[in-house]
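B., you asked whether I could sanity-check this one before it goes into the benchmark set. Here's the sequence:
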Amino acid sequence: MELLKKFRELRKVQSAYGYMMNVVGWDSNTEAPRNSFGRRAEMMGVISGEMFKLSTSQEYQDTVYGLYNSLDKLDHFTQMEIKKAKKSLDKQVKIPEKDFVEYNKLINLSQKVWEDAKENDDWSSFQGNLEKIVEYNKKFITYYDIDDHPYNVLLDEFEEGMSMEEYDKFFSTLKSDLVPFVKEVLNSGKRVNDDIINDFYSKENQKIFSEYITDVLAFDLDSGLMKESVHPFTWNTHPGDVRFTTRYLENFVFSSIFASIHELGHATYEQQVDPKWNDTLLSGGTSMGIHESQSRFYENVVGRSKEFWAVHYPKFKELFPKQLEGVELDEFHLAINKVEASLIRVEADELTYSLHIMIRYEIERMLFSNEVETKDLPKLWNEKMVEYLGIKPNNDADGVLQDVHWSAGLMGYFPTYALGSAYAAQFYYTMIKEINLDEIILQNNIKDLNRWLKDKIHQFGGSKTPKELLFDVTGEDFNPQYYVRYLKEKYSKLYL
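And here's what the prediction gave me:
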């Protein structure tokens, strides 16, 4: 079919532009010189303009819409790809090129503005950029002319089929079933050795352990790379080039350990996508919620398990003998699973983590319902921290400025973190019916775990919707009670 051949040719060019933008973006977040950002943003604006022209060209429109009108002549996966292409095109063609280019320039500049604002605890220096980002997103949604709540449009971008109604039900379950349990755990009186957590751990030896973990989790370094950044993230273009970052805090070693394991979860997912999806719209993970299910699974179910540390604690102790002198495995295991009301999301314990996400979800919901303005966010943030976690940040760097996502325009992304944790629990209860996970971890045979995840989840890339994938693996629709069950079982054993 001539139209399909043309579509593949155009997608190849789009992929090439995307590859360039991603490489530059990776460099911006890892090693680019401070003074390069202005020029870099300008050049990325030019490239994004060319991408926009190609993605909205009459030739591309004729190709996509022509194929959409001939769906019955295409195989299932090509149909799925064309539907995705049309959904994206329907939006893009309604955005003026000038707005698209200016927005991309803004996003590329805002990353650095946010970093400086966070470092200097200066909300006012970032607030103007964020206001523009929010207004651009609101403007784009009006262009789309979609008959739905603006925030639903954004939520669907990151998790197809999810809406405020479904997220409200999910978070309502967490509030009713988990919040009382969190309070019970916090009031249990179980003592945790904070010296383990707060001692000084050299950055150099943290790096050695992160590299060790990379090997333990069977990450293919011939097809990947690990670097350092302010905020850990994973980047990819195809299974042969998957990169992730971590960060090292010398007075909070667990941050780097679990950041590394978390990002390795994302990276493993991408490395295990079937290469047959390369250059198609079905490449990469199927959704952010499913992606987070993998990162949270590796980080928490595997990385915070006693079985994992029964194997790897000796190596960690070898690197930090003074800090861990006389500390037995049980004591260490409790420390890495310490439950407390904390300020920083990425350093939050597994049990309270979703409360951090609720705060961000509710703020974004209010922003796009025009109930609040960006200038209100520091005060609103602090109020919700008190409401859900009982603590108030002393500054904005530890409060409203702590996350990178808004500077990148990722409105609607945050809820997928909590959703991913819930997906992970549902996958977990299916997994343990089929494989002996504890034994796999104890035998340090992570490749067997990776193989199960590849067969059930990873290989499919975006060729299934999140809901289809979840049902195919577990035999059920989404059920947040598995998440509640998992947390209560784990933390009751540890604290009650």
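One thing to flag: The chain has a mean pLDDT of 93. Otherwise nothing jumped out at me.
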